[in-house]
UniProtKB/TrEMBL annotation:
It is found in: Cytoplasm. GO terms for cellular component: cytoplasm. SUPFAM superfamilies: P-loop containing nucleoside triphosphate hydrolases. Transmembrane segments: none annotated. InterPro entries: G_HFLX_dom (IPR030394), GTP-bd (IPR006073), GTP-bd_M (IPR032305), GTPase_HflX (IPR016496), GTPase_HflX_N (IPR025121), GTPase_HflX_N_sf (IPR042108), P-loop_NTPase (IPR027417). Its main location: cytoplasm. Monomer. Associates with the 50S ribosomal subunit. CDD domains: HflX. Residues 383-555 form the Hflx-type G domain. PROSITE patterns: G_HFLX (PS51705). It comes from Selenomonas bovis. GTPase that associates with the 50S ribosomal subunit and may have a role during protein synthesis or ribosome biogenesis. This is GTPase HflX.
């Protein structure tokens, strides 16, 4: 089920109109086309009824990503504007003009430039009911001061605009833009085509379109520009080529036309599929796993993180070396060659096995150290709260907002790889440790799950999980589902969990807010604006105080340290110094109980 957020000015709109506006999310536009007559008709009819302009943002698959009402230029879209310096943004903007004039305005042109839209289109209806449109593109050339050149087609009749082959036109603009970037930065940017198979019988959590959109974000995060994609529906993937032969030929042609430097497959390829495809396509072929490994390699920070990534890379590449050794491993590498494992990938199999062994030993040693750390922490009895959640949900931002720490947050997938932990003192005096974790994703390849044991171990140890959800995402249900599945895999799905719906500043729909909380114990907040952060702190406080137990204790005098600990936790209800020790009534936090078990007189 899809949820639809409407952006912008919804004041005084009848429910029936709001519903119709939400239905716009169900429209699909073929990639070759400017728009469809049905979509144009509906947009213009709605515009007439509400007297405001409507803007629709479409992604490369022709799916509607966002709908905004009113002056679209002021809408701060979450997904737009993050792919600068990549050439075109992959986002098309189509909007209506309430009057009969479809000419592009100055602000239209300037947002086209600023956000590198694939195109900026405007449509309007004349008094006679005819639809006219205008569309502006970047040309791929630049003025002397660096301003991108723009060309405008129209105003002309809708049917003439529908004749433009958008796919081809945009591919040629993109090619030009990337050349320009290459000249300016001196770096050749990897350009990628994406390929995916929709398995007919498969009950996937994400639709193939959403899965491909996620793959595109992953590619983007890894630093490759996506210049096209192909999807095939099949009973099952082809054993030798993953795709059908016809599709492989089509891809090969697309590589020649677009000059793409690599193809990224949405699923894990077998070593032989990868080999066959590399030879058939004559270009670099990687899969989702290799792409994620590549991102992990770029972003691992701690020693353990780096070792884990190198280990996963070597394990992934070992069966792929095949008889062709070096040649394949170079072609099969990630985006650019980089990461801790990069130079080592060129070793031969025997040496790779040896290196794997060394890494395993090193990781074991570090993991033992961490155990020790944990033991110390248990003794210090500070409860651990672990933030889990889909990648990009805002976990790191929340940790920052909560602690003022400058942990690394950015609008990329997998910004955090290694667990980051901060100590926080709540109002009641209760200390907690709040730990950030790597984001989960749908289709996280199984082989990578153990590679992130470091993160998962923290989750296993936690007293409470904060499941952070991007409330502004259309796919939030699917994302929750994907996270819960991983939690189940590591057997922690029964841990006490508090849902934190983040980014409510981007949600304008209050019905949606109610829906989010309907059957979950949760809080709506915004790490960005700070809204409701104190509620979260209060909830944490309440959680840990509820988990206390009232005890009567008799502490020997020499256990003054334990008495001090109870004071520090504000746990003491009464205390009395007797001849043979101290009698204490205390509200002892759950996680400290083990320290007092031998001194309990009565528990209530
Ligand atoms: N509007 C808005 N944006 C937010 C909010 N919280 C986070 N963001 C943005 O969302 C993006 C992702 O935030 P991160 O904190 O890096 O997300 P994360 O869950 O740690 O991501 P990974 O480490 O990749 O799993 C960043 O661009 C943040 O600025 C919020 O409350 N409101
Ligand atoms: Mg993060």
């Amino acid at each position: 089920m899809k949820k639809s957020i409407l952006y912008g000015d919804l004041t005084n709109l009848k429910t029936s109109l709001v519903q119709r506006l939400e239905q716009i999310y169900t429209y699909l536009v073929p990639r070759e086309q400017f728009s469809t007559p049905e979509l144009d008709e509906e947009l213009l009819d709605l515009t007439q009824q509400i007297g405001r302009e409507i803007a629709v943002y479409l992604n490369g698959n022709g799916r509607v990503m966002a709908v905004s009402i009113g002056d679209y230029a002021t809408v701060d879209l979450p997904e737009v504007g993050t792919r600068r310096l990549q050439g075109l943004s992959g986002i098309r903007c189509l909007h209506t003009h309430p009057g009969g004039d479809s000419t592009l305005s100055e602000p239209d042109i300037s947002s086209l430039r600023r956000l590198s839209f694939d195109f900026m289109g405007a449509i309007s209806k004349t008094d006679k009911g005819e639809i006219f449109g205008t569309v502006g593109f970047l040309t791929g050339d630049f003025q002397e001061d660096g301003t991108p050149d723009v060309t405008v087609v129209g105003p002309c009749r809708e049917r003439d605009l529908l004749r433009i082959d958008m796919k081809r036109l945009l591919a040629s603009i993109q090619k030009k833009l990337l050349k320009h970037i290459e000249r300016r930065t001196g770096k050749k940017k990897e350009t990628a085509l994406l390929a995916g198979v929709e398995i007919e019988s498969h009950a996937a959590v994400l639709s193939i379109e959403d899965s491909m959109a996620e793959l595109q974000r992953l590619a983007d995060t890894a630093g490759a520009a996506v210049i096209g994609m192909c999807i095939q529906r099949r009973g099952k993937p082809d054993a030798a080529f993953f795709l059908g032969r016809g599709k492989v030929e089509e891809l090969s042609l697309a590589i020649q036309q677009t000059g793409a430097t690599m193809v990224i497959f949405d699923d894990e390829l077998t070593p032989s599929q990868q080999r066959n495809l590399t030879l058939a396509l004559g270009s670099k072929v990687i899969d989702r796993t290799a792409l994620i490994l590549d991102i992990f390699a770029q972003r691992a920070r701690t020693k353990e993180g780096k070792l884990q990534v190198e280990l996963a890379q070597l394990r992934y590449h070992l069966p792929r070396l095949g008889g062709q050794g070096l040649f394949m491993s170079r072609l099969g590498g990630g985006i650019g060659a980089r990461g801790p494992g990069e130079s080592k990938l060129e070793l031969d199999r025997r040496r790779i096995r040896k290196r794997i062994h060394v890494l395993e030993t090193q990781i074991q040693t570090i993991s033992k150290h961490r155990c020790l750390h944990r033991e110390q922490r248990k003794a210090a009895a500070v409860p651990l709260v672990a933030m889990v959640g889909y990648t990009n949900a805002g976990k790191t931002s929340l940790l920052n907002a909560f602690t003022g720490a400058a942990a690394f947050a950015e609008d990329k997938l997998f910004a955090t790889l290694d667990p980051l932990t901060r100590r926080i003192t709540l109002k009641s005096g209760q200390d907690i440790l709040l730990t950030d974790t790597v984001g989960f994703i749908q289709k996280l390849p199984h082989t990578l799950v153990p590679a992130f044991q470091a993160t998962l171990e923290e989750v296993r140890e936690a007293d409470l999980l904060l499941h952070v959800v991007d409330a502004s995402s259309q796919q939030y249900e699917e994302q929750i589902e994907a996270v819960v599945r991983v939690l189940r895999e590591i057997q922690v799905e029964r841990k006490p969990t508090l849902y934190v719906f983040n980014k409510v500043d981007l949600c304008v729909d209050h019905l949606r807010e109610q829906m989010l909380l309907r059957d979950r114990d949760g809080i709506l907040l915004s790490a960005r604006t700070g809204e409701n952060l104190t509620t979260l702190a209060d909830r944490l406080d309440a959680f840990f105080s509820e988990r206390r137990k009232m005890l009567q204790l008799l502490l020997p005098f020499e256990k003054g340290r334990l008495l001090a600990l109870l004071h520090e936790k504000k746990a003491i209800v009464s205390q009395e110094f007797l001849a043979y020790g101290i009698r204490v009534t205390a509200n002892v936090p759950q996680n400290l109980l083990h320290l007092f078990s031998e001194y309990v007189i009565t528990d209530q």
